[in-house]
């Protein structure tokens, strides 16, 4: 089995949903390295009884820290239970995180259903070589300017 690093993030109104989902999938999740933004990580660690690498709270830089870890190749999957009906003061940070996850082509679940599909995929148990087509095309196009 290939151990993955999974980032777990949830807006305030979705934290309980992510905790419940994580409890339902605890056996599978504990086989992987887990990280989360501050408050979400603290709550998950308490409820699951597993070690969670905790970044700062999202509004004070945690979203950027997770984005940086994605760029550095340290995160393999993002599970982000966000609240599409609630405007957040740090919406630009959230958009940046989602953009980076898309650019670096990591699996990203933004609701319970997609998270269920990911955690139950046979790809969770094996190495997966993701394609970085968009990123590589962008980088290669910029080389001609140098």
TrEMBL record:
<dbReference type="Pfam" id="PF02142">
    <property type="entry name" value="MGS"/>
</dbReference>
<protein>
    <recommendedName>
        <fullName>Methylglyoxal synthase</fullName>
        <ecNumber>4.2.3.3</ecNumber>
    </recommendedName>
</protein>
<dbReference type="InterPro" id="IPR011607">
    <property type="entry name" value="MGS-like_dom"/>
</dbReference>
<dbReference type="InterPro" id="IPR004363">
    <property type="entry name" value="Methylgl_synth"/>
</dbReference>
<comment type="similarity">
    <text>Belongs to the methylglyoxal synthase family.</text>
</comment>
<feature type="binding site">
    <location>
        <position position="15"/>
    </location>
    <ligand>
        <name>substrate</name>
    </ligand>
</feature>
<feature type="active site" description="Proton donor/acceptor">
    <location>
        <position position="63"/>
    </location>
</feature>
<feature type="domain" description="MGS-like">
    <location>
        <begin position="1"/>
        <end position="146"/>
    </location>
</feature>
<feature type="binding site">
    <location>
        <begin position="37"/>
        <end position="40"/>
    </location>
    <ligand>
        <name>substrate</name>
    </ligand>
</feature>
<keyword id="KW-0456">Lyase</keyword>
<dbReference type="InterPro" id="IPR018148">
    <property type="entry name" value="Methylglyoxal_synth_AS"/>
</dbReference>
<dbReference type="InterPro" id="IPR036914">
    <property type="entry name" value="MGS-like_dom_sf"/>
</dbReference>
<feature type="binding site">
    <location>
        <position position="11"/>
    </location>
    <ligand>
        <name>substrate</name>
    </ligand>
</feature>
<feature type="binding site">
    <location>
        <begin position="57"/>
        <end position="58"/>
    </location>
    <ligand>
        <name>substrate</name>
    </ligand>
</feature>
<dbReference type="GO" id="GO:0008929">
    <property type="term" value="F:methylglyoxal synthase activity"/>
</dbReference>
<feature type="binding site">
    <location>
        <position position="90"/>
    </location>
    <ligand>
        <name>substrate</name>
    </ligand>
</feature>
<comment type="function">
    <text>Catalyzes the formation of methylglyoxal from dihydroxyacetone phosphate.</text>
</comment>
């Amino acid at each position: 089995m290939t151990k993955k690093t999974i980032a777990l993030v949830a807006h305030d109104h979705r934290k309980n949903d992510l905790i419940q989902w994580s409890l339902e999938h605890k056996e599978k999740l504990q086989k992987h390295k887990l990280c989360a933004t501050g408050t979400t990580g603290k709550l998950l660690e308490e409820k699951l009884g597993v070690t969670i690498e905790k970044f700062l709270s999202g509004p004070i830089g945690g979203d950027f820290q997770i984005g940086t870890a994605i760029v550095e190749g340290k995160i393999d999957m993002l599970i982000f239970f966000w609240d599409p009906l609630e405007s957040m003061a740090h919406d630009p940070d959230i958009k940046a995180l989602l953009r980076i996850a898309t650019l670096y082509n990591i699996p990203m679940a933004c609701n319970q259903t997609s998270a269920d599909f990911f955690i139950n995929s046979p790809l969770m148990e094996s190495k997966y070589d993701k394609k970085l087509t968009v990123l590589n095309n962008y980088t290669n196009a910029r080389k001609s300017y140098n």
